[in-house]
Amino acid sequence: MPDAAELLAAYDAQLRAHISDRLPRDVSVERDGPLVRFCGLGDRGWIVYQDLGGLEGADLDELIARQVRVFGERGERFEWKLHGHDRPADLAQRLHDARFVPEAEETVMIAAASEIAGWPRLPQGVSLRPAISRADLDLIAALEETVWKDDHDWLAESLWAEREADPDAMAIVIAQTAGTVVCAGWVRFERGTEFATLWGGATLPAWRGRGIYRATVMHRASLAAQRGFRFIQVDASGESRPILERLGFTSVTTTTPYVWSPPSIAAAAT
């Protein structure tokens, strides 16, 4: 298994500016200098990049301002995905000055898929199954809303559109008992890289601490390993990080969503 520095280098080179070759029809991708700009993706747009190519000062401020203009004209909020090792060192302050709002910091964690793969014991009455219907995705959206206490109306449609565009690029798993979804997560198979990426994983509070999230991680790692992916990567919350560390994941950096919202959306949120 490579060390943390080697894993970070692979993550930067392969994942950070990766673009799927089959995107939902309403999603557009544009390049602007070192940036990759995704519009119409889920509940927000995205700005990603491998690095900023040494941009700083007024040139960096103009690059940031240009993204604000693009998304402002669309009336769409967007996320600038800032990593802890990004340069220049004052990038977070420049985003703040441009009226971006930071969300909770997460930890970028990576493991060898074959070392995490497995099928652990689940609590009695809980089973794992694939999400195969639009109704399943609606159940997942409802779960996310319950756990995070915010609007996830967009999630089912976004996942459905993504799967329609490329059915083989993602697998979604549900943990349920007596018809109740207690945890759900999905894995994206990032073709052209060594990585599969893990998403979701929200668990109902009453069902935490019973190994259910761990089971979904191991199952998704198995799916990735079966397809020949070397690594699995996840942006881990503070709650998930200890579980993943015990499984054998390595922390390589942090990531913080800096979110800009058009005035109308910002006002509605206050």
What is the gist of this entry?
Helices cover 36% and strands 29% of the residues.
- Any idea what the shape is? globular
Which consecutive residue ranges, at least 5 long each, have pLDDT under 50?
Answer: none
Q: What is the C-level CATH assignment of the largest domain? A: Alpha Beta
Number of domains: 2
Number of continuous helical runs:
9
CATH superfamily of the largest domain: Gcn5-related N-acetyltransferase (GNAT)
N-to-C SSE series? HEEEHEHEEHEHHEEEHEHEH
Which CATH-level-2 architecture of the largest domain?
A: 3-Layer(aba) Sandwich
CATH topology of the largest domain: Aminopeptidase
Which terms summarize this structure?
single chain, 270 residues, alpha+beta, Aminopeptidase, 2 domains, twelve-stranded mixed beta sheet, 9 helices
Produce the secondary structure layout.
Blueprint: H1 4-14, E1 28-32, E2 35-39, E3 45-48, H2 57-74, E4 78-83, H3 91-97, E5 101-102, E6 106-112, H4 113-116, E7 127-130, H5 134-148, H6 153-165, E8 170-177, E9 180-189, E10 195-203, H7 212-226, E11 231-236, H8 240-247, E12 250-260, H9 263-269
Parallel strand pairs: 3-4, 10-11
Antiparallel strand pairs: 1-2, 2-3, 4-12, 5-12, 6-11, 6-12, 7-8, 8-9, 9-10
Helix pairs in contact: 5-6
